[in-house]
Design a protein that fits this description.
- The protein is an all-alpha fold.
- The protein has two domains: 77 residues, no CATH class; 159 residues, no CATH class.
- The two termini are 39 Å apart.
- About 13% of the residues have low confidence.
Length: 290
Amino acid sequence: MNSSGGLLDHLEALRGTLLWCVGAVVLLTIPGMIFASPVLLWYVKQVCPQGMELHYFTPLEPLIVELELGLLLGVLASLPVLLLKLGEFISPGLYGHERRWCVFFLVSSLLLMGIGITVALWAVVPMVMRFSGGYAAEGLRPVIGLAGFLRMAGLLAAGFAVVFELPVALLLAIRFGLVKVETLRRRRPLLVVLLFTGAALLTPPDVVSQLLLALPGWLLFETTLLVGSWIAPREAEEEAGTGAAVPAASEPDPVAAGDADAPEQGASGSFTDDSDYRRAARKKRRIRPL
């Protein structure tokens, strides 16, 4: 198959993947909008203190909130389809061990993201609402808007989801040699400052929610260093084994010497065995770890 045919096949596969993703989001957004209003009212009753009510300040604010929440529910419900189709698209270009690692990191990222969102919606949001309601007194009554409440809950959920994904991103970088554990240990103060700064940007402007986001992120970072120190030696051994399999520059070329065990080359000089060619190309363009 020529190169133009291969490119067209990839574009056709990408088109099919995008159509599946968009169709899943659109299809599942419809029931999400239908159930958005009862879900929102039920959640408000669960997390707000007794007697606290939410208000809306523009005529179309409840409708806009329901549309936004319905779209969010549709995206969350279609997430398994999106990830499945994305995995089917990229899996043909990966080795077997790379597929296994990608599945492991994908499952871990989904699990940690779910834990982060659950902690935000069912532990942090009620705590923030009770903290806000504690300032109520005679002559001082909280009037909280519906859109503001949903925006605060969404920011907290997104912030906790991002922070809880930090171990997956760092372990992925450590596993594939993009960064070293020693580098992360040396730059721990800078990373902690960045973590607290990100928590301040991703949460509402109150100290409680910022600390509740930054402290678990710090603990997850320290856990990542412990797990990363266990992963790094295994990676070093694999790199050493790969380096031993590639002939050094001073050794004679096995193809030029007529070695029968060497990969065959075609008329254009390319390897017939595609796996050997890809391994040699990866060795040349290996990214040097930080």
